[in-house]
Amino acid sequence: MSAGEYNGRDIYVVTDNIVSPLGNTTGANFAALRAGKTSVQKHHYKEIAPEAFAASLFKDNDSFYKGDGVDYTRFERLAIASASEAINNSGIDTGDDKTIFILSSTKGNISLLETEEDNAGLHQRVSLATSANLIAAHFGFPSKPVVVSNACISGVLAIITAMRLIRSGEYDTAVITGADVISKFIVSGFQSFHALSNEVCKPFDRDRDGLNLGEGAGTIILSADNKYSGSIKVLGGAVSNDANHISGPSRTGEELAGAINNALKDAVVAAADINFISAHGTATPYNDEMEAAAITLAGLQNAPLNSLKGNYGHTLGAAGIIETVISLQSLKQGLLMPTIGYQENGVTHPVKVCTAVTEIDAKTFLKTASGFGGCNGAIIFGK
Amino acid sequence: MAAERYITRSCGINSGEVCVNLEVLFSNRGHLLPDFLLSVYQHFALSYPKFYKMDNLSKLGWLASELLLKNAGMNEKYDPARIAVVLANANSSLDNDLKYVKTISEGASPSVFVYTLPNIVIGELCIRNNFKGEHAFFIQDEFDADFIFKQVNYLLDQQLASACICGWVDVLGDNYKAALFLVEDKQADNMVTFSPNNMTKIFNLVK
């Protein structure tokens, strides 16, 4: 197959969902963001951390799938809740053998290691492949599910993987669900890096002092079926590696800029045609500095940009999907959401941080993500 | 038609044996994994201080990649932004996760926590070799050669990469296996056509 043939296939967004502490539907989440809400707050959960910590956590299990006799974990019930709402809205046939389920998560069921006896059964139960098989069976997907676990770019990489599987003709429809839940394992690790802020985080701000962790799930359903023509399309995407440090970003941002440039090329879109950017914007000093440098290198420093980490915290394997879903709504409604926590520029290469709900006439947006292991991802959607 | 592609080299590490292109180059059975990995490092006279900081998964993947890429001239032949890495395993970073969880009560260590992600082994390979291209880490019940084959072909067909290191790197306790493949368009010695069947055949021969 020659280059170009794959790109001949338009891939549409059929529907989407977010299940977060701010709401259980895309609509509820978008309304909450429009009202300037955040679900990040101080928590005193001794089972998670000895000291109080700021995070976005579900207060109860009302948002989670209640079960059907199968012993799903909390992580799986969250993922099923998000996928269910999207699938029920979509009218797609999950039993079609040209439909694939893709799960994105960094740590899945890892909290089981904190409470359960260490044995072979636990090793099997904690596996992301086990979770993906259970969730796929719940919905009756006939194909073997795909699991993407690539640190903080997992969500963006899962969408790119889906796009490529559909472009190549392997599948016609993809249900992509990203989810992560927060436990002692994850909080203690980020604390050991001194990466957590004690208040609502401040992406790209002068006083930013770290990230907030968040729980949540997001689902996007993509299809090549022409009956969705007129819907927003996924236009292109790319991944790169810094080859610099396993826990710190590139010094220059040129590798993320490379991923952005490759995504633009893949999407056949010029930098000038990007109407807004949904940044990773974790609010750690190094990430935001690198990201702003990369955006500038890619010639996108004048595109309005937001980070939603102040609303949701960093939802890890769900982040790329949740933030894409909000951006899809921004494209549909012509309303860009603000960056909670941002007040004054705090990066060497200033970027155009959106600070209030802004009416925009947008046709195309870019979503970026970067993470441990030096990974960068960029994906472009358009009308 | 897809271009003719070759597995120009393969490297397998399993059960105390190291093979390159299915030839056993080193055997040292009956040791615990950390001791075995160190013996491989020493036997091949490798010198890379970062090796000692890695968890077992990264050590295994790194050793396999060193032997896979020895004299392959990757950086002379290819633009670093066009070398891709596509890996998969069954147990993610569980081997290190189990170690990390035990340290939490005594004060969590960032140097252990950072290895609680499976894609860190890709990061280590990229740092060592200055690879800056496409990459992905997938979790699978068992080695799915067909899936990896299609992912790699997409990257090469679309000219998103010129060459790809792909395969399997899995560790849990004293069970471990690495099977890496270097996939290139150009012919080389000991070439094997890049196909799911040939990947599976090599994977299964790495006992």
TrEMBL record, chain A:
Output the GO biological process annotations, alphabetical, semicolon-separated: fatty acid biosynthetic process
One short Pfam name that applies is: ketoacyl-synt
Q: Tell me which UniProt keywords the record has, alphabetically.
A: Signal, Transferase
Checking SUPFAM superfamilies in the record gives: Thiolase-like
Q: Which domain of life is it from?
A: Bacteria
Q: Which GO terms describe its molecular function?
A: 3-oxoacyl-[acyl-carrier-protein] synthase activity
Any idea where the Ketosynthase family 3 (KS3) domain is?
A: 1-383
Q: Member of which family?
A: Belongs to the thiolase-like superfamily. Beta-ketoacyl-ACP synthases family.
The protein here is known as Beta-ketoacyl synthase
Automatic annotation (TrEMBL), chain B:
> Which terms does the record give in the GO molecular function aspect?
acyltransferase activity
Record Gene3D superfamilies: 3.40.47.10
- Name-wise, this protein is Beta-ketoacyl synthase-like protein
* Organism encoding this protein: Mucilaginibacter glaciei
